Every structure is written in C-alpha cells, then in structure tokens.
Hints:
The protein is an alpha+beta fold. It has a single domain (3-109), classed as Ubiquitin-like (UB roll). Helices cover 35% and strands 23% of the residues. The chain is built from 3 helices and 4 strands. A hairpin with a 2-residue loop joins β2 (51-61) and β3. The radius of gyration is 16 Å and the shape is elongated. The model is unreliable at 33-37 (pLDDT under 50).
Amino acid sequence: MNIELVRERVQAGHYVVRSHAVYHALKEGFERKHMTSEPIPICGEHQVKKEWRPTTFEYSDEGVTIRVPNVYAWVCPESGEASFTPETVDELITTVRELIGIAKRARERHPALTEYVVSVSV
C-alpha cells in the first residue's frame, strides 16, 4: 500500500488509533496530525465489529508503569485490542507524559516508595 492511499484513507476518516500505536506515540514524541475516527471499526484480525466500552490503557517507561482505567475505546470482543479516538489519544499522551515525569521525580526523592495510586473524580 502506498503512502498517498494511506493518507487519503486517514483524511477520509477510515482509521482509529490502537493502544500499541499510542505506546509508540509516547515513546517517540508523536503529535496528532490528520487522524479521525470511523463510525464502527472492524477488527482486522477477527473481522468482527468492535464494541464501544471502557478499557485500561497501560504504558511503561524506565521502570515506571502508568495505568489509566475506564478509558472508552473501540475494543475487539475477541482479543480485547483497543482502538482509541484521536481525542482520547491526545489526552492519553498529555496525561501519561505528565504522570511519568512526576513518578520519576518521586522515585528519585524516595526510592523506597514503589507504588502510588492517584484517583481523580470529576
């Protein structure tokens, strides 16, 4: 598949962002460009419609793991693979980058403390 065809499909709204892509986006300093979401994505592996439901996003970097539960995404009912909307990707990237920095600084100050739980209510 050539890059122009991919670009056209992305701009036409035929793609969402999988959790693996979000992981790489965080690792590689990705910023969102030309991403849109399609109405009901189909799992490419299992050929079934994905379900809109909460899932947990997890990211690890240099011994720090961030888990963000109850994030809505399109989830394959067979494998559990999540695809996030571009807006959710933006929020995950911003939030996880901030939390990774905070956790690393806390680890430097107090290396004996190895787990923190933060809950935010709306």
